[in-house]
Design brief:
By secondary structure, the protein is an all-alpha fold. About 70% of the residues lie in helices and about 0% in strands. The protein contains 20 helices and no strands.
């Protein structure tokens, strides 16, 4: 019953904050929800499909091994190369910035090549067609929503750049909500490397989570800002304009460097700021332990975590991770899951893998406003009004997907 309760609670909250409650179409909500549940059941419970998704974890191992060759050559033993000294501990030192984050660089190049070779555009176009036929959304919105599974929150609107000026306010909100609710393909491999110890077949689950979050993003956004208008056209624009495979490699490397530098800088700044805030509020009485942002998030999100199907004994820890995702980012939340997940139930780790998958956090709002306003300055007023609301819509999407996974995983 937890999963069902969670779904109902999330939909009720989305409806309560809707701009036009009476214009919400119940049939569209039910259809989208059914499609999301059925898709989750197919991806998680059909053996052939789940095994196929599990098999792509080989990609993670291959990328990790290949990246280690490069990092060990450039950084030596701190990049995973042979140690020039005897170990005092049981294992070699694990340095996050030099051994894991460079995988993002390699994967960014692979994504660039797949885009130039027209593999990703074809997949996006097919996914967009399915979204149009099943959910009744416009072609332009469908293309942007489908693209958000593979590229970032700023790049996905770029594939429909010509239509951003004319799509409705509701459709615009769908586009940015889907961008905030998913993760870029270039960074998925990093999450898998972090949580691989607590979740089996992690890459398949991350990909599945991103797909389910697209459906959840469409559902929640259309409840919060309903509109019957549909923008039909949906031709995919060349968002990157690579001229050759070598151009894709060089520009993919440059883009990857920006991502890597941004990850490192944001981690240092946000973790430091949270630690500073924790020092400031630690003097406030809060029981046996000092008050902290993590503790506050645990109290706030504990009931919703339970609604997703997480046992009450794990719900506080789950709530803290969901709060970390919102306040800092999903990368830090996944990193914490890789540690605390060893003490949580397997079911909890599975649900959290899905509910933590998404760019919804305070820092991403700034990136979204800066990036998308540069693409379509004519919609800056809409963007300034709607981008902060994606913190709510993206968080609701995360809990909705977690509830559906909790429901599906408990059947049978």
């Amino acid at each position: 019953m937890h999963g069902i309760i969670g779904i109902l609670v999330i939909l009720l909250v989305a409806w309560a904050v809707s701009e036009r409650r009476l214009q919400v179409r119940p049939l569209a909500v039910v259809i989208t929800l059914v499609v999301q549940i059925v898709l989750a059941a197919i991806l998680l419970r059909v053996p052939v499909v789940s095994e196929a998704l599990a098999s792509i974890n080989v990609v993670v191992g291959a990328i990790g091994t290949a990246t280690r060759e490069g990092t060990s050559f450039v950084f030596g033993y701190i990049g995973g190369g042979e140690l020039p000294f005897d170990l005092a501990a049981d294992s070699a030192p694990h340095i996050f910035a030099f051994q894991l984050i460079p995988q993002v660089l390699v994967f960014a190049v692979l994504v660039a090549l797949l885009w130039y070779w027209r593999v990703l555009p074809m997949v996006i176009k097919g996914f967009a067609w399915l979204l149009q036929r099943t959910l009744g959304i416009g072609g332009a919105v469908g293309c942007a929503a489908a693209a958000s599974v593979f590229v970032g929150m700023v790049e996905s609107p770029m594939v429909i750049r010509a239509h951003l000026k004319t799509i409705t306010r509701s459709e615009f909100f769908v586009v940015i909500t889907c961008g905030m609710s998913t993760v870029a393909g270039s960074i998925m491999v990093l999450y898998v490397s972090i949580i691989g110890s607590v979740v089996q077949d992690a890459l398949g689950h991350i990909v599945t989570a991103s797909i389910l979050n697209v459906l959840g993003g469409i559902l929640i956004a259309r409840v919060m800002i309903p509109d019957d208008t549909v923008t039909d056209s949906g031709e995919i624009e060349d968002a990157f304009g690579y001229q050759s495979s070598f151009d894709a490699i060089t520009r993919g490397t440059t883009d990857g460097v920006r991502i890597v530098v941004n990850i490192i800088a944001m981690l240092i700044v946000l973790i430091s700021l949270v630690a500073l805030i924790n020092h400031i509020i630690a003097f406030i009485p809060a029981g046996d332990a000092p008050l902290s942002l993590g503790g506050i998030a645990g109290w706030v999100f504990q009931p919703l975590s339970w609604c997703m199907g997480i046992p009450w004994s794990d719900a506080n820890a789950a709530g803290q991770l969901m709060g970390t995702k919102l306040v800092i980012n999903e990368l830090v939340a996944y990193q914490q899951l890789g540690v605390v997940g060893l003490d949580l139930q397997e079911r909890t780790n599975l649900i959290l893998t899905y509910s933590l998958c998404g760019f919804t956090n305070l820092g991403s709002v700034g990136i979204l406003i800066g990036g998308v306003s540069a693409i379509v300055p004519e919609r800056r007023d809409d963007l300034l009004a709607l981008a902060p609301r994606t913190l709510l819509s993206g968080t609701l999407v995360a809990f909705l997907t977690g509830s559906i996974v909790g429901l599906v995983s408990s059947i049978g």
